[in-house]
Amino acid sequence: MRLYIDSIGRDVDIDIEYKRTSRYLLSVTPDMNVRITCPLGAKTFEINRVLDNAKPWIAQRIKKLEKSIILGNESLSSGSYIYLFGDRKTIDTRQGKPKVLLEDDSMIVYVEDESKVKNTFDKWWKNLAEKTFSDIINKQSRFFNDMCLDTPSISVKKMYTRWGSCNKRLNKVNLNSYLLSLPYECIEYVIMHELAHLVHQNHKQEFYSLLVKYMPDWKQRKKVIDDNFLLCKKS
Ligand SMILES: [Zn+2]
Fold it and tell me: What is the pLDDT of residues 55-86, one digit of tens each?
């Protein structure tokens, strides 16, 4: 099925899926197709109505996809690329003792056989993410002293819908490993945002006052993320 969207002036492919669910779920894939999950037995006219109402959202999502760097969708084959600290690196896989080397605009993944690329890369990336994020947290000692907080533990994993979250009770911050693709100042912003949630678990004025105190230019840093990067898992 195809749907014409006026505001982008073209058709998009619609992939319909039926599930035992009571509500509709829409997503736009990185290749800019729309997937709609419908309740079992949903009628065509109902599906059309949901899609019709969602047109503005679909158009907005596609426009954003067209101009964004999409994260969460890496292929890791030789010649593909990945972003590290906001810089584009071309992946080059070579035979050798497993390691990852950075060289100008390339990221060279050495593996004993081709099937190990993902494993070798993922381990290296996660290690670098943990080290980078811990360093950033440790630089905020003034914040922890002022707030009488212990330095939180961190958990790093791949996430597709958020950059981070925080658990005050466990004094723990969960961070998305794809953050490592963002410019360093943007990673610092996301982490400062989560640290501020250790004090205020909301997005009220008191939260933003605290954030601005420890990171006066947080808005510019957030804008760089919002204008340039999008998390989107290939489905
Ligand atoms: Zn928040």
Answer: 999 999 899 888 999 999 888 999 999 999 99
Of 180, 121, 172, nearest to 150 by C-alpha is 172
Please give the structure tokens belonging to residue 160: 């597709």
* Nearest Cα residue to 225 out of 176, 179, 177, 194: 179
Same domain, yes or no, for 125 and 221? yes
Q: How far is the CA of 28 from the centre of ligand 1 (A)?
A: 24
Please give the span between the terminal C-alpha atoms of the chain, in angstroms, as a whole number. Answer: 18
| Residue pair 58/74 in contact by the 8 Å Cβ criterion | no
Q: What are the E-state strand segments in 20-130? A: 25-28, 34-39, 69-71, 81-84, 87-95, 99-103, 106-111
Q: Are 61 and 125 in a shared domain? A: no
Look at the pTM and tell me if it is higher than 0.90. no
- pLDDT, one tens digit per residue, over 149-162 is 999 999 999 999 89
Q: Are residues 135 and 62 in the same domain?
A: no
Structure tokens at 152: 């939180």
Residue 127: both structure tokens together = 């290690």
Query: How far, in Å, from the CA of 76 to the mean position of ligand 1?
Result: 31
- Cα of 159 to ligand 1 centre, how many Å? 15
CA 111–ligand 1 middle distance (angstroms) = 39
Q: Is residue 136 part of a domain?
A: yes
Statement to judge: residues 132 and 59 lie in one domain: no
134 and 200 belong to one structural domain: yes
